[in-house]
Amino acid sequence: MALESAVLTEMSSPDDRSPYSERATRAGYRAVSGGRQSTGGTPGQALDALTAQLDEAEVGTLVVIQLQQADEFFKAAQRGRLEELMARWRAARECGKALPNDEQAELERLVDVEVEAAGRRAEAAAHSVGR
Questions:
Q1: Is the entire prediction scored with pTM above 0.85?
Q2: Percent of the chain's residues with pLDDT above 70
């Protein structure tokens, strides 16, 4: 059985809109595993909705790793730039504006890289406990 990782992220508030305009949601949490994703008002709701999409063979043990600092999977420069762009995105949103296209694209790329890093981090953690 291949290791499937799920990533659970908290949106800054239930009323926030995602920087991905096409993925905008009013839920407070998003769970992602492979090409599947779900949202919910609580972490449990988001994970339950994701689990409902999985085949019986894909459902396994859930490990939550919360790391808000740079590491080998998501470097300090990437984290700093993501934080900077998120601050600019929030400021633009509060003024009813959007980020310039190049910054929006960079933000979306960094979010994707961060999600991928979370998956690699989960794989490394599973490997270290002998899975």
A1: no
A2: 67
Chain centre to alpha carbon of residue 38: 11
Distance, CA of 79 to CA of 108 (rounded, Å): 13
Among 21, 22, 41, residue whose Cα is nearest residue 31: 41
Token digits of residue 105:
């694209």
Asked whether the beta carbons of 3 and 86 are under 8 A apart, the reply is no
Q: How far apart are CA 66 and CA 78, in angstroms?
A: 17
CB distance 69 to 47 below 8 Å: no
> What confidence score (pLDDT) does residue 35 get?
72
Task: Provide the 8-state DSSP code for 85.
Answer: H
Q: What is the mean pLDDT of the chain?
A: 75
| In-domain check, residue 2 | no
Look up the domain containing 106 and give its range. Answer: 7-128
Does residue 1 belong to any structural domain of this protein? no
How far apart, in whole angstroms, are the C-alpha atoms of residue 117 and residue 120?
5
- Please count the structural domains in the chain: 1
**Cβ atoms of residues 114 and 82 within 8 Å:** yes
Task: Establish if 96 belongs to a structural domain.
Answer: yes
